[in-house]
Description:
The chain is of the alpha/beta class. The protein has helices spanning 17-32, 36-39, 55-61, 97-102, 107-126, 130-143, and strands spanning 3-8, 45-50, 71-74, 91-96. It has a 4-stranded mixed beta sheet.
Amino acid sequence: MEVHILYFCWRCLCSSDMEREKFEILVGRAIESLPEEFQRRLENVDVVVEEWPTAEQMKRAGTKSPGRLLGLYQGVPRTRRGRGYGLVLPDKISIFQRPIEAHCRFDHEIEARVGEVVRHEIAHHLGLDDETLRRIEGEKRGRK
Length: 144
């Protein structure tokens, strides 16, 4: 499994190194908590923690509000990789720290939201689109 967790600071707001480190740990735990069958399918992907999305990332996601974009998958989903796929740069999953924190009041809420966002973006890496993910989430809520 090739997954790298990196930290980049785009348009940093004042935050301590401990906060960044703690957030990165939450992202790492979210990946480690995935079932083994999903962890094995993570190939050629970097998971990156960023403070805020860039203008280019917001444009790619179709939003004008940086606070609405919590994560972003950029790459070739595994279901679209053909025989010619090889020797390419890793896909990139960006997890945006400040927007996630803005949606939460407590640390346990941040941890839960990080888990949701990581799973959502990894689902894109595995080939699921937003419509399918919304349907799955709706079914999951209906069972509760």
